[in-house]
Amino acid sequence: MERESMEFDVLIVGGGPAGLAAAIRLKQLATAKGQELSVCLIEKAAEIGAHIL
């Protein structure tokens, strides 16, 4: 059985407020330093932020 493989610099688990903020801030910091950074955010719900009250 073959599985698809994807590589990222950072994996964030959870698309709630903290996960979203972490992903945004990491990308901002990388951009400010002129660096390329790949960020993957995974969420158990059908949509990012679906469990935010």
Keywords:
53 residues; two-stranded parallel sheet; 1 helix; 15% strand
Question: Beta-sheet strand percentage?
Answer: 15-25%
User: Taking Cα atoms only, what radius of gyration do you get, to the nearest Å?
Assistant: 13 Å
Strand order of the largest sheet: 1-2
The number of distinct β-strands equals 2
Largest sheet geometry: 2 strands, parallel
By helix and strand content, what is the structural category? alpha+beta
Counted up, domains total 1
What share of residues is helical?
Answer: 25-40%
Q: Compute the separation of the termini in Å.
A: 40 Å
Helix and strand pattern:
EHE
List the helices and strands and how they pair.
Blueprint: E1 10-13, H1 17-32, E2 39-42
Parallel strand pairs: 1-2
Question: Could you walk me through the main structural features you see in this protein, from its secondary elements to its overall organization?
Answer:
With 53 residues, this protein is α+β, with helices and mostly antiparallel strands. The protein has one domain (16-53). It contains 1 helix and 2 strands; from the N terminus they run E-H-E. The protein has one helix spanning 17-32, and strands at 10-13, 39-42. Strands 1-2 form a two-stranded parallel sheet. It is flat and about 35 Å long. The model has no long low-confidence stretch (mean pLDDT 92).
Give a short synopsis of this structure.
The chain contains one helix and two strands; from the N terminus they run E-H-E. It has one domain (16-53).
